[in-house]
Amino acid sequence: MPTRTSHFRVDNGDMSLIELESGRCILVDIKIREAADDLDDDAPDVGQQLRKRLRRDGQGRLYVDAFLLTHPDEDHCAGLMRHFHLGPLIDWSTDDDKIVVREMWSSPIIFRRASKKHVLCDDAKAWAAEARRRVGKFREAGPLADGDRIRIMGEDADGKTDDLAAILVRVDQTFGTICGVHDGTFEALLLGPLPPSDEVEEEVLSKNDSSVIIRLTLRADGEPAAARYLLGGDAEVAIWERLWAKHKGTTSRLEYDVLVAPHHCSWHSLSWDSWSGKGEDAKVSEPARNALAQARAGAVVLASSCAVRDDDNDPPCIRAKREYASIVKPKGGTFRCLGDGDDMEPFVFDVTWAGPKVKRAALVVGSASGTGIGQEALAHG
Q1: What ranges in the chain are assigned the alpha helix state H?
Q2: CB contact at 8 A, 99 and 63
Q3: How far apart are CA 15 and CA 221, in angstroms?
Q4: Smallest Cα–Cα separation from 4: which of 31, 33, 34, 24?
Q5: 114-163: pLDDT as tens digits
Q6: Model-level pTM greater than 0.85?
């Protein structure tokens, strides 16, 4: 299978599908608005675009192998209940034909902080309930089957995840398994959410600053590190400053070929100052910028946002766009925005041994039956 990543055009929001050389796929966030499901609306039908890129299992069910929710804002989980099966697989309905999530990747911290700061949308509540169901089944019966699996991204407070070691990924830990099987075609490094350093900071940290931050290394054509993707949800300046303090001696951990600009190209990931309030007098945080500046040769910064205009909007922010462009230009790289132009299809990178290459979206239709994991995957599993 070719290694490919598809980034859906959802305005200010995130939705990416990572297709591994093994044939397995990882979905990171979704934003499937009701407008996107309306045939009379001009919004891209990202739900249908996603379905056409997925495979069906032996029971005819569309599925993703893993689904990572970076944090529970509506623009990262909208459409979950309409498009994804939640609950035991025995309740899956042919008539509804919803997508099965074989394994959830979820952080308990994102919900603990969110409950203090804002009310969750219904889709976020549904994700949290499904995560609790799967954790409960693990506590009852141990290792689980596809459709009940969950990986916990980061430790919770007060020892609440101490009994979940078998499904827990700690910050700064790497892993390369999906659905209980080692997959040699990717490696994931968990960089966040970072725990607070004290009680005062816990009160200050926002829901955005609890985002899961992950660096994926993808294999292609036998090259184990053909592409590195850095995904940070809506993490803002405080977290990027802390990541730089933590990793400035090991900057390779922050390196990327593709950076999905955090918080939809927001200035708040690069500065403590308000763009609308201070304009060009707003100062860049050098530590945060350094954390986001570890671009490899030819790197692309991709803004999952509306078109970036020269105005006071944030996100996306024109000053942030300029800053990212200045980061990648010396590396021969580019800044791209999903909101630019009239193309309704996802923005696609085909990854080869030489790295990710931009491609106009080519429709990849999954097989109508089977597990979706072929001999190549088994060889590397």
Answers
A1: 34-37, 46-51, 74-77, 80-83, 108-117, 122-141, 199-204, 237-247, 262-265, 275-278, 286-291, 318-328, 375-380
A2: yes
A3: 26
A4: 24
A5: 555 567 899 999 999 999 999 999 999 888 899 999 999 998 877 889 99
A6: yes
